[in-house]
Design goal:
The structure holds two protein chains of two kinds. In chain A, about 55% of the residues lie in helices and about 10% in strands. By secondary structure, chain A is α/β, with parallel strands linked by helices. In chain A, helix 7 crosses helix 8. Chain A starts with 6 loop residues before the first strand and ends in a 6-residue tail after the last helix. By secondary structure, chain B is α+β, with helices and mostly antiparallel strands. Helices cover about 45% and strands about 20% of the residues of chain B. The chains are: A alpha/beta, B alpha+beta. Chains A and B meet through helix 1 of A and helix 15 and helix 16 of B.
C-alpha cells in the first residue's frame, strides 16, 4: 500500500487562478498540486490519495460535475470544494447534490477558503482513519470460515444463541464455540465491540 | 426591368388613337386644295397650247396656200411649155407647108404621143382658120386616140376659137377654168377644164390655124384636195367669186349652171368676198370659220421661168387670177382643241387622283403625328422626372411641366432662359463641367447635391444626352433629371435608425452577457486577491520571500488582463463614428472569438478559426461588421449548447478577385424549417428571453454593405451563415 501525504489538488483551466491558488496554499504551508483539466487529474488519481479537491466547475473538456462522478466511480472519496463564478448557483447546487463537500463563489475571501480547506482536510483525515479501521475489520472478518460468517450474520441480525442454533440446525454449544472463535479472530473482547466493527465493515456508503 | 420597358417604348404607336373622321375631312380639304392649285398651270397650259395650236394651224394654212400656189403654177407652166412646143415643132411646119394627109397623120401621131405621155389633156387639137378641126386627139379615159376625120367638128363659134384667131403669133389664149361642154351641154360626169390656144403661123408669118389644148382640171383639183389636212379645207375661187373648189359639189361651178347662179362665195359670204376683193391676201374670222386666202396669178411665171425667153406669153396674164382659200371651220378648230383638252384632262385626272392619295397619306401622317405628339406630351408632362432641351447657347428650348413645378415658375417662363438664370449660380457652377461635356457630344450621367436658386438643396440624378445633327454638330442636349432628395433622405434615416438599433442591440447583448462578463473579470481579480493574500501571509509569517517577486509580477499581469477586458467591453458598447473604411475581417473574426471565448469555454464550445492568409480588406463600417460577426457567433453558441456531444463553431474567411466571404458555421440542431427565411424578421426568435432582433439587425447591416446575409443547412447538420463583401479598391 502506497502512502500519500494529504495534498490540496487544484483543478482549474485558468492558469492565473490555478497558480494564485497554489501561491496562497503554499504560503500557509499546505501541500498542493495543480491540474489544468479534469483529464490531467484523472490520469494520476488513485483511491489512496489523501487531501481535498479544489475544482472549477466550468472547464473545457470534462466538466467539474463529470469529474466528480468519475471519481466516485473509481472509489476516490476526497472532499471536493467547488469553485464557481458569479451566477453559477444552479450548477453549484447540482454539484452539492452530486456529493461535493462545499462550494465557494469567486471572488473569494482567502481566509474563508483556507478555513474550508482545513475542514476538508480534517474530514478527509477522519474518513481516512475510519477507512483504515474499516479496512482492518474487513480484513479480520475476511478470515472467518463460511460457517463462522453465517453465525456472525445471524449475531449481527440480533439473534440469540438458541435461535441461531435452531436456524442453522446445530447445537447451542457449537454456536458458542463459533462465537468465541469469531471474537478471537476479529480481536475483540466484547459483543458490543464485535457488532460495532461489523457495522463499520459493512457500511454500504464506504468504498 | 429594362427589357419590358424597351419593348413598351417601341409599341407606343399602338396606343395612338387615329381619328378617321378628321383624316377624311383633312384628306378632302387637302385634296381639293391640291387639285385647285394643280388646275392653275393646266389652265394656263391649255390656253397656251390652244393659242399655239391656232398659230400652228395658221402657219399650216399659209403653207397650204403656198403649196397650192406652187402646184397650180407647176401645172400651168407645164401646159404652157407644151403649148409653146406645139407651136414650133417640125411636124406642124411640114403640115402647114404641104397640107397632105400623110403630114396630117404625122402631126396626129405627134399629138397622140404627147397625150399618151402627159395624160392631162382631154383634147389636143389643130383647128384651121375656118374653125374646122383638122387634127384631134381625145383623152378617151386614159387611152388617147386619134379622132377619125368624119368625127371632126366645126368649132368656129366657140369662144376659144373666137378669142384665139385674133391673137398675134407669140400670144396665148387661156380660157377661164370651167366645165367642158359637149354639143352645147355640160359633159357628164363633170369635166373641169382649161383651154389653152395658140395661133400657128407658117414660115411666111401668116396665121394658119390654132392649136388648142384642153387641160384636164380634175388633176389640178385632185392635187389641191390632196393638200387638205387639219388646218382646213382648200377653196378655189374665181375672179367673180364662184367656187371651183367649194364647200360642197353643188356649190361648185355655179356660173356654169343657169339654175344656181347664187351659188357663189360672193353671195354666201359677202363680207369675206369684200375682203378678198379689197386685198390680195388676208385672214377672215367669222362665227363659223377661220379663213385665210390669197390671190394668185397662175399664168404669171415664178422666178424659175422668169428668165426664159417669153416668145409665147398668155394674154392678159396679170388679169387672170384665182383666189386660194383655206377654210378652217370653228367646229374643226374646237375639235382640235378638244382633243388637247381631253389629253390634258386625262393627265389632270391622274394627277388629281394622285393628289388625293397624297392628301390621304398626308392627312393620316398629320393626324398620327398629332396623336403621337399628344401621347408624348401627356407622358412627358406626367413623368415624375424633369425633362428639358437646352441648346448650345445653354438656353432652354423645351421643358416639361414637372420642370416648371420644380422651379416654381409659370408656364412658358423657362423657355429661352439661360441655365444660370434658372438654376442659380451655385447649382450652375456644380453642373457646368457636365454641361460642357454634353455640349462636346458626350452623354453624361451624374449624381449631385445641388443648391438651386428656387428649389433649395436637392439630391439630383442627372443624365445629359447630346443632340447631334447628321453633320456631327452638337445642337444642344436633352436633360433628364430625377429628384432623389426624398429617397436619399429616407436612406439616411434608415441608416441612422439601423445604427441606433444596432447600438441598442449591442447594449442588450451586454445585458444578456452580464453574467459571463462578470465571470470573466472575476478570474483575474480572484488571481490578484490570492497572490496578494499569499504575499501578505508570507510577510507576516516567516516563510520564504523568494516567491514574492513572481507573485507581484503575476498580480501586475492579472490587473492588466482585467483592464483589457473592460477596455474591450467599452469598445463594443461605444456609439462611435460610423464610417466606411478598410476593414480586416480576419481581425474582426479573432476579436469576436476572443470576446466570446469565455462563454464558449464555459459551455464547452470549441471555436475554430479558419482564416485565409493575406485576406484583402473590405470596404465597410468596422463597428457594424463586428456586431454582425459577434451576433452570428453568439447565435451559434446558443444553437450548439442545447445539444450534448461535441459543440463546434467555425469562423471561416476566404476571398476571390472581387469579394471577401465570411462564414459562421455551427454543428447545432439547425434552423427550424418552419421558420425558414422568417428567422430574419423582427421579433422572431427561438431563444427564451430573446428579443428576436439579432438577425434582423445583422441582415440590415449586411444589406447596407450592398450584400445579402444568407444561411444554408450544413450537410452534416447545423447551419452556416454567410455573407460576401466587396474588396476595398486599391489605392
Amino acid at each position: 500500500m502506497k502512502s500519500h501525504v494529504a495534498t490540496v489538488y487544484v483543478i482549474d483551466d485558468d492558469d492565473a487562478v490555478r497558480e494564485a491558488l497554489g501561491a496562497l496554499l503554499g504560503s500557509v504551508g499546505l501541500n498542493h498540486r495543480g491540474f489544468a483539466s479534469s483529464e490531467a487529474f484523472l490520469d494520476v488519481a488513485d483511491r489512496h490519495m489523501r487531501g481535498c479537491l479544489l475544482l472549477d466547475v466550468r472547464m473545457p473538456g470534462m466538466s467539474g460535475l463529470e469529474l466528480q462522478r468519475k471519481l466516485q466511480d473509481q472509489g476516490i472519496a476526497m472532499p471536493v470544494i467547488i469553485i464557481t463564478g458569479h451566477g453559477d448557483v444552479p450548477m453549484a447546487v447540482r454539484a452539492m447534490k452530486a456529493g461535493a463537500t462545499d462550494f465557494i463563489e469567486k471572488p473569494f475571501n482567502e481566509q474563508y477558503l483556507l478555513d474550508r480547506i482545513q475542514v476538508c482536510l480534517k474530514d478527509d483525515h477522519e474518513q481516512w482513519h475510519t477507512r483504515q479501521v474499516q479496512n482492518e475489520a474487513s480484513v479480520r472478518f475476511g478470515n472467518l470460515t463460511p460457517r463462522e460468517k453465517a453465525v456472525m450474520e445471524l449475531i449481527a441480525a440480533g439473534n440469540h444463541t438458541k435461535k441461531i442454533a435452531a436456524q442453522l440446525d446445530i447445537q447451542d454449544r457449537t454456536v458458542d464455540v463459533h462465537r468465541f472463535n469469531i471474537m478471537r479472530k476479529v480481536g475483540v473482547r466484547t459483543l458490543a465491540e464485535l457488532l460495532r466493527l461489523w457495522s463499520l465493515a459493512h457500511q454500504p456508503t464506504l468504498p | 426591368m429594362a427589357g419590358p420597358w424597351l419593348t413598351q417604348a417601341r409599341t407606343i404607336h399602338r396606343v395612338v388613337q387615329i381619328n378617321m373622321r378628321q383624316i377624311a375631312m383633312l384628306t378632302l380639304l387637302l385634296g381639293l386644295t391640291f387639285s385647285i392649285l394643280l388646275a392653275i398651270p393646266f389652265v394656263f397650259y391649255h390656253r397656251a397650247e390652244s393659242d399655239n395650236n391656232l398659230r400652228l394651224l395658221q402657219s399650216e394654212q399659209e403653207r397650204m396656200i403656198e403649196l397650192a400656189d406652187g402646184v397650180i403654177r407647176q401645172e400651168m407652166a407645164s401646159v404652157l411649155s407644151d403649148l409653146r412646143y406645139l407651136s414650133q415643132h417640125n411636124e406642124i411646119r411640114k403640115y402647114l407647108e404641104h397640107a397632105n394627109p400623110s403630114e396630117r397623120l404625122d402631126l396626129a401621131r405627134e399629138y397622140l404621143a404627147l397625150a399618151r405621155q402627159k395624160l392631162v389633156y382631154d383634147q389636143i387639137r389643130f383647128i384651121g382658120l375656118t374653125g374646122m378641126e383638122e387634127v384631134r386627139i381625145n383623152f378617151n379615159d386614159g387611152q388617147p386616140t386619134i379622132v377619125a376625120d368624119q368625127d371632126l367638128q366645126d368649132k368656129h363659134d366657140r369662144y376659144y376659137f373666137e378669142e384665139a384667131q385674133w391673137l398675134s403669133p407669140g400670144q396665148i389664149y387661156v380660157s377661164p377654168f370651167d366645165l367642158n361642154t359637149e354639143h352645147g351641154r355640160i359633159a357628164r360626169p363633170l369635166k373641169p377644164a382649161i383651154r389653152f390656144a395658140i395661133p400657128i403661123a407658117d414660115d411666111q408669118g401668116l396665121i394658119r390655124g390654132i392649136v388648142v389644148l384642153n387641160y384636164l382640171g380634175q388633176r389640178l383639183l385632185d392635187r389641191l384636195h390632196a393638200l387638205e389636212g387639219e388646218a382646213g379645207k382648200i377653196r378655189l375661187i374665181d375672179a367673180r367669186g364662184y367656187w371651183m373648189i367649194g364647200p360642197t359639189a353643188e356649190d361648185e361651178w355655179g356660173f356654169m349652171f343657169p339654175d344656181r347662179p347664187e351659188r357663189s362665195l360672193a353671195n354666201r359670204s359677202p363680207e369675206l368676198w369684200q375682203q378678198m376683193k379689197a386685198g390680195k391676201s388676208g385672214v377672215h374670222q367669222s362665227e363659223a370659220s377661220w379663213v385665210r386666202f390669197e390671190r394668185i396669178f397662175p399664168l404669171i411665171g415664178d422666178e424659175t421661168t422668169a428668165g426664159m425667153p417669153q416668145f409665147a406669153a398668155p394674154v392678159d396674164a396679170d388679169r387672170y387670177y384665182w383666189t386660194i382659200a383655206v377654210e378652217l371651220s370653228q367646229v374643226a378648230l374646237q375639235a382640235s382643241n378638244h382633243k388637247l383638252l381631253v389629253k390634258l384632262g386625262a393627265v389632270y385626272g391622274v394627277l388629281v387622283l394622285f393628289s388625293f392619295v397624297a392628301a390621304g397619306a398626308l392627312a393620316f401622317a398629320i393626324n398620327r403625328n398629332k396623336a403621337l405628339a399628344a401621347v408624348t406630351e401627356t407622358v412627358l408632362d406626367n413623368l415624375p422626372l424633369l425633362v428639358a432641351y437646352v441648346d448650345k447657347d445653354q438656353r432652354y428650348r423645351f421643358n416639361n411641366m414637372a420642370y416648371e413645378r420644380f422651379f416654381g415658375s409659370k408656364p412658358m417662363d423657362v423657355y429661352g432662359k439661360r441655365l444660370p438664370e434658372l438654376l442659380g449660380e451655385s447649382a450652375y457652377r456644380d453642373i457646368q463641367p457636365y454641361v460642357e461635356q454634353a455640349l462636346a457630344g458626350k452623354p453624361v450621367t451624374f449624381e449631385l447635391r445641388l443648391n438651386y436658386k428656387g428649389a433649395g438643396l436637392r439630391d439630383m440624378v442627372v443624365s445629359y444626352m447630346p443632340d447631334i445633327s447628321p453633320q456631327g454638330e452638337v445642337r444642344g442636349y436633352y436633360g433628364i433629371i430625377n429628384d432623389v432628395t426624398q429617397v436619399k433622405e429616407a436612406e439616411r434615416r434608415d441608416r441612422q435608425r439601423m445604427v441606433e438599433l444596432a447600438h441598442v442591440s449591442r447594449l442588450a447583448s451586454m445585458g444578456e452577457m452580464a453574467t459571463e462578463i462578470a465571470h470573466e473579470i472575476n478570474q483575474p481579480l480572484a488571481a490578484i486577491a490570492m497572490y496578494s493574500a499569499a504575499g501578505l501571509r508570507t510577510l507576516q509569517g516567516e516563510g520564504e520571500h523568494g516567491q514574492m517577486k513572481i507573485w507581484l509580477e503575476a498580480i501586475n499581469k492579472q490587473s492588466k488582463r482585467a483592464s483589457e477586458i473592460v477596455r474591450r467591453i467599452r469598445r463594443f458598447m461605444q456609439k462611435g463614428e460610423h464610417q466606411f473604411g478598410a476593414v480586416d475581417m480576419n481581425l474582426i473574426a479573432r476579436e469576436a472569438a476572443e470576446f466570446i471565448s469565455h462563454e464558449a469555454r464555459s459551455h464547452e464550445v470549441a471555436i475554430v478559426l479558419e482564416l485565409a492568409d493575406d485576406l484583402p480588406a473590405v470596404q465597410g463600417d468596422r463597428v457594424l461588421l463586428e456586431q454582425v460577426v459577434f451576433n452570428l457567433l453568439r447565435n451559434a453558441v446558443d444553437a450548439v449548447v442545447s445539444q450534448s456531444g461535441e459543440r463546434r463553431i467555425t469562423l471561416k474567411t476566404s476571398f476571390d478577385a472581387q469579394l471577401v466571404r465570411f462564414e459562421v458555421s455551427d454543428n447545432g440542431p439547425g434552423v427550424d424549417p418552419a421558420l425558414g427565411e422568417h428567422i430574419f424578421d423582427s421579433f422572431v426568435t427561438s431563444k427564451q428571453g430573446g428579443m428576436g432582433m439579432g438577425l434582423t439587425i445583422c441582415r440590415s447591416i449586411v444589406e447596407a454593405h450592398a450584400s445579402t446575409l444568407r444561411y444554408i443547412t450544413n450537410p452534416g447538420g447545423g447551419t452556416t451563415f454567410m455573407f460576401s463583401l466587396a474588396r476595398e479598391a486599391k489605392g
